[in-house]
Amino acid sequence: LLLDTTALKPYTVYLISQNQGFLLEGVPSSPGSEVTSGTFEAQASGTFSNASFTGGFIVSTTTPATSNVTDISASVQLDGAGNFIGSVDESGAAGLTPALVTTGTYSIAAGGIGTGTSPVFGVASVPIRVISANKFVLIAPADDSAGRGTLVVFEK
């Protein structure tokens, strides 16, 4: 499987079930030079909207994280109208910052693709991808010069 066409990095894909798996950079004959990994799972069928996401969600960054990435854990409330409020703990190169109160917005299109905003993300908007009515992910901007963002999971 070739995912990065600019650097031509090979990845090994492992299936866990019919619609779920993970990948690692490199193959046995050509191991990767970095620790790159990821997971994938099928998107639930149906249409989505802001109203698909209401109530409490637990938020966390995915592993493996590096020292150049800010890790977060949070508890947020989504109102179904595109707004959220929550409490966020951040841990990064500058240390731990507990109990930050944050607000933000989200906008989800029928196909499960959207955007989100919050001062925690540090940019105008971030991409959102819906997995199901109980789970979506976003890609927070990079904390380092290599441009590595952080996958953030929102789950009921």
List the helices and strands and how they pair.
Blueprint: E1 2-4, E2 9-17, E3 20-27, E4 30-31, E5 37-41, E6 54-61, E7 71-79, E8 83-92, E9 95-108, E10 113-117, E11 126-132, E12 135-140, E13 150-155
Antiparallel strand pairs: 1-2, 2-3, 3-4, 3-5, 6-7, 6-13, 7-8, 8-9, 9-10, 10-11, 11-12, 12-13
The radius of gyration is 17 Å
One letter per element, helices H and strands E, the order comes to EEEEEEEEEEEEE
For the biggest β-sheet, the strand order reads 6-7-8-9-10-11-12-13
Strand content: over 45%
What is the mean predicted local confidence, pLDDT?
79
SS element count, helices: 0
* Silhouette: globular
- Major beta sheet, specifics? 8 strands, antiparallel, barrel
Strands, total number: 13
Would you identify the regions where 5 or more consecutive residues have pLDDT less than 50?
none
Relative helix content:
under 10%
Structural class given helices, strands, pairing?
mainly beta
Report how far apart the termini are: 32 Å
Describe what this molecule looks like in 3D.
By secondary structure, the chain is mainly β. It is built from no helices and 13 strands. The strands form two sheets. An eight-stranded antiparallel beta barrel has the order 6-7-8-9-10-11-12-13. Strands 1, 2, 3, 4 and 5 form a five-stranded antiparallel β-sheet that branches. A hairpin with a 2-residue loop joins β11 and β12 (135-140). It is globular, with a radius of gyration of 17 Å. The two termini are 32 Å apart. The model has no long low-confidence stretch (mean pLDDT 79).
